[in-house]
Write a structure and sequence with these properties.
The protein is α/β, with parallel strands linked by helices and about 325 residues long. Helices cover about 35% and strands about 15% of the residues. It has two domains: about 110 residues, NAD(P)-binding Rossmann-like Domain (Rossmann fold), CATH 3.40.50; about 180 residues, Rossmann fold. It has a seven-stranded parallel β-sheet, with helices on both faces. Helix 10 links the parallel strand 9 and strand 10. Helix 5 crosses helix 7. It binds glyoxylic acid (GLV). The site of glyoxylic acid has 6 residues, from loops.
Amino acid sequence: MSERPRVWVSQPLFADVLARLGEHFEVEATREVTRHEPAAVNAILRRMDGALVTLNDPIGAEQIAGAQRLRAIANVGVGYNNLDIAALSAAGILASNTPDVLTETTADFGFALMMAAARRMSEAERWLRDGHWQRWSFDSLLGADVHGATLAILGMGRIGQAIARRATGFGMRTLYHNRSRLPAAVEAECKAQYVGFDELLARADHLVLVLPYSPQSHHLIDAAALAKLQPHATLTNIARGGIVDEDALCDALEHDRLGAAGLDVYEGEPRLNPRLLQQRRVVLTPHIASGSLATRRAMVALAVDNLIAALGFGPRAGDPPSPINGGTRDRGPGTRI
Ligand code: GLV
């Protein structure tokens, strides 16, 4: 009798959604949110055929060393900078992510965070809760308009486009910059105009970052980039923390060279640069842009579909819905042993 494939689930997710894994595999699930050490992950992956991981879990050469039977890594998240795709591809391991199912929810949040920063919502609530509201005054906590303003989107993938579509309802002018220009029909649908990077920064009233994190985008928004923004502009980041030089951002806020910022992601999260916590004109949220209940469940369900298919089971056996690379290890049904 052949042994069932073994899969590891690196963090506690929705048990009822994960239950489908148990129809095909022996499942080893982590019960508490855990910061796994690389050596511990390696020891686990050496026993596994597949794994379902989150952005908390870096998976690269160190983690997969000697993991002979490992064939698939399913990432719960659209961003996959936690995965070393070159190392996984070299080992023939199929990696997948969870695009599409989170697009609209993440765009909702990006838009809300941009509005919250522009209208100083967190600052106003802190002020109110701290008992400062003695009488209504005409000129307290004045913010910047969103309607009719210029929205600048850096990174015009699915989420960037969904934010642009929202902006049409607010009568905004939308500019974007992206590695490649979108087809004219998509630009027309999003009512978005392609501009160069410097022009995007110079014309932005509200700059929103939605680009993937890579060595090329590390600290792309640094002191020089921030200096190109208008002093009233807002910066919203729902991409990855490492894209922004947080010290340069704090300098800009402290010297009134930037209007406000909305941040959902941080370099080194969940640790925060202590200077950010001192800023008045920032809205800070703990990486929750895709965090509606329905969407988080849909993300886990898609990662489960990916893992089942990548390991050769289910209706899409051998053809996972959202692969990142092409794994070359055997994807036939059952175990390779
Ligand atoms: C969340 O940040 C994701 O990449 O899905």
